Each structure stands twice: as structure tokens, then as C-alpha cells.
TrEMBL record:
Species this protein is from: Penicillium malachiteum
A Pfam short name: SLAC1
Subcellular compartments: Cell membrane
Primary location group: membrane
Descriptive protein name: C4-dicarboxylate transporter/malic acid transport protein
């Protein structure tokens, strides 16, 4: 997700140049390689050791990260639309549409199943245990909605484009109100139980994710609706323009709400620093990146230099954060002391003993 949003930002900067375009392609290829490696590794892990899947899906924290799969995949679809479609034409458009359908199924499944698991199990029994990670499964459909609007924009078949756009709006409606509801609960948790522990302090940036991509997605949905509704008898010809105008104002509202959480996040980081490095530091990149994308999109639509410059500055911050976190991750992976799965503590004793014996034999 972090690498993918960097490639999207490099492609979206309003002061873009040919150099940024080629750098975004490099990040696109790197992201495709990282996603493939992570997906294959995870598939083999849960295939060879199915017991791990059971304890992971029942863990109230680790299970939430399943939502990162369709969100990371959505960034690949976006870059496919930006880079491959203009060069490769019709078959690339069909490929983007097919990949997006797969992403929709995965995102909707994750949002509905993990949200139900969260409310049906009894792991979280107090407000203090609520974290911003609860936003992850909800944000999956919001990200899929934004990617769907971009796919609908390039589909030549008007019927397919209209269907894709309507599904995107449904996905946006599934996730955005629910995400705002969770933000209300999360704010109450912060007000009553104060800041999260230092190890999880980066999670304070996660509210920017659904707000940023939700604002970006609703603008794109309105933009495509304005084009599609002009040549159809659905509703009224003015419906497309209404959807576009409402999308801009809703996006501006979500951007403003996100600005509040952005200030909270930076203040929290400054107040709590220093804090230890862990994989949670990747939570800096994607939420701030999608907020920057929404900012730049508002700048293009409203033709306001403030949003263009502010979005570009935020994009630069995201790229620098990516470089910092990626280097620290590579160093921790080389040392072998970075990756840790707390849910494995819930494995059955027999499986733990077999893993311990295997590690002893390797030594």
C-alpha cells in the first residue's frame, strides 16, 4: 500500500514532469513485485500451515490486516489504468476491468466478514481496546470505489462504464458512513483513555485513509457521472452535473475533516516521540498519501494553487517517509528481528512443540 500510493502520487502531482512519470513506473514495477512476493508467501504460509489461518482470523488485531490485500491490489489497478492503458489499448482496459472485479469481491468480502467478526466475538470488551485499526476493513471498499471510478472512466462501453460507476458508488456508500461512525467511537476512546501506547502511535494517521480516499473517490465518481449521464435517459441529464458538484463539496468536507485528524496525528507524533521502529511505521505512508491525492485532486478541480502546492508538499513528505521506512524495514529484515506475529502465541501446544523442534534441528 505504501509503495503503491507513492507511484500514484508521482503520477498525480500537478507540476509533473517526464522524470516523475518514469519514476512512478519504477515504483509501479517495485510494487507489483512486492505484492506478488507477499501474496505468494502468505498463500504458502496458510496452505502449508492451515492452523495459523485459524488463529489469525480469530485474532482481533491481526485479522484486520487482511483488508490490506485488496487495498494494495487497488493501487496496482490504478497504476495499470494510468500507465498501461494509454500504451496498450483495449486489451489493457479489459484487463483493468477484470482485475477491478476481483478486487471488488475481495474488498466487499473483507469489509463484511471482518466487520461482523469484530462485533460477534468478545475480544474487545472495553472502549480502551478500540484502535484506529478497526478502520482497515472498512477502508477496503472505499479504496475499491475510487479505483472503480478510474476504471469506469476508460471503459469504452457505456453500459459497462455505468454499471462500474454504480457499483463504485455503492462501495463508497458501504464504507464511508461506517468509517465516520468508527471515527466517532475512536475519538471518544482518545478523549476518555488518552493516546495509544508508543508502539502503536503511528495508528493515529489511519483516520486519514478513509477520509482521504473517500474524498478522492467521490470526486472521481462525480466526474465520470457527469460524462456518462449526458448521453443517457437515466434520471435526468442534469443528474451528472449534480453528482459532480455534490462530489466536489462532499470531498471538500471530508478533506476539512481529515485536516483535523492530520493536525491531531502530527501533534501526537511530536508529543510521543521518540517511539520504537516497527512494521506499524508503514501506517505513515498510505493514509497521508491518499490525503495528499485528495488535496491535489481538489486543486485540479477547483483550480486553486493552495491545494496544488499543499498536496505536492504532502506528496514529498510521503516519499521521504517511504524512503525512511523502507530502509529501516530492509535493515530489520536483513537482521531477522523485525517480523513478529503475536497471533502465533495462540497456536496449539503440539504445533508449537513441532516448530520449536524444527528450529532446534536447523540450529
Amino acid at each position: 500500500m505504501g509503495t503503491g500510493i507513492v507511484s500514484v502520487l508521482l503520477q498525480s502531482i500537478p507540476f509533473s514532469s517526464q522524470a516523475l512519470h518514469y519514476i512512478s513506473i519504477v515504483f509501479f514495477v517495485l510494487n507489483a513485485a512486492l505484492f506478488s512476493l507477499a501474496f505468494v508467501t502468505s498463500f504458502l504460509r496458510y496452505t502449508l500451515y492451515p492452523e495459523i489461518w485459524k488463529v489469525m482470523i480469530q485474532d482481533p488485531t491481526n485479522s484486520l490486516f487482511l483488508a490490506t490485500i485488496p487495498m494494495g491490489f487497488a493501487t496496482l489497478i490504478e497504476m495499470w489504468v494510468f500507465i498501461c492503458v494509454p500504451y496498450w489499448g483495449s486489451w489493457a482496459i479489459s484487463m483493468a476491468w477484470a482485475l477491478w472485479i476481483v478486487d471488488v469481491i475481495a474488498a466487499a468480502s473483507v469489509t463484511l466478514s471482518l466487520s461482523f467478526i469484530l462485533i460477534s466475538q468478545r475480544h474487545i470488551t472495553s472502549l480502551e481496546r478500540i484502535t484506529a485499526l478497526q478502520l482497515l476493513p472498512i477502508a477496503a471498499t472505499i479504496v475499491a470505489a475510487g479505483a472503480g471510478a478510474e476504471v469506469a472512466h476508460v471503459l469504452p462501453n457505456k453500459t459497462h462504464a455505468m454499471s462500474t460507476l454504480l457499483v463504485s458508488f455503492v462501495l463508497w456508500g458501504m464504507g464511508t458512513p461506517l468509517a465516520i461512525s468508527v471515527l466517532v467511537i475512536y475519538y471518544q476512546r482518545l478523549a476518555v483513555h488518552k493516546l495509544p501506547p508508543r508502539e502503536a502511535i503511528v495508528s493515529c494517521f489511519l483516520p486519514l485513509g478513509p477520509l482521504g480516499f473517500g474524498g478522492f473517490g467521490i470526486i472521481y465518481i462525480g466526474k465520470v457521472a457527469r460524462e456518462l449521464f449526458q448521453d443517457t435517459d437515466i434520471l435526468d441529464p442534469i443528474a451528472g452535473s449534480m453528482a459532480y458538484v455534490l462530489g466536489v463539496f462532499i470531498s471538500l468536507l471530508m478533506w476539512s475533516f481529515g485536516l483535523t485528524w492530520l493536525v491531531f496525528a502530527f501533534a501526537t507524533v511530536l508529543y510521543s516521540s521518540p517511539f520504537p521502529f516497527n512494521m506499524g511505521w508503514w501506517g505513515f505512508t498510505f493514509p497521508l498519501g491518499v490525503y495528499a491525492a485528495n488535496t491535489m485532486e481538489l486543486g485540479k478541480v477547483l483550480d486553486l494553487m493552495f491545494f496544488k502546492v499543499f498536496g505536492t508538499v504532502l506528496s514529498g513528505v510521503v516519499i521521504l517517509l517511504w524512503a525512511l521506512v523502507a530502509s529501516r524495514t530492509a535493515l530489520g529484515a536483513w537482521r531477522g528481528d523485525l517480523f513478529y506475529a503475536p497471533c502465533l502465541q495462540n497456536l496449539s501446544p503440539s504445533l508449537k512443540d513441532s516448530e520449536t523442534e524444527e528450529e532446534r534441528l536447523r540450529a
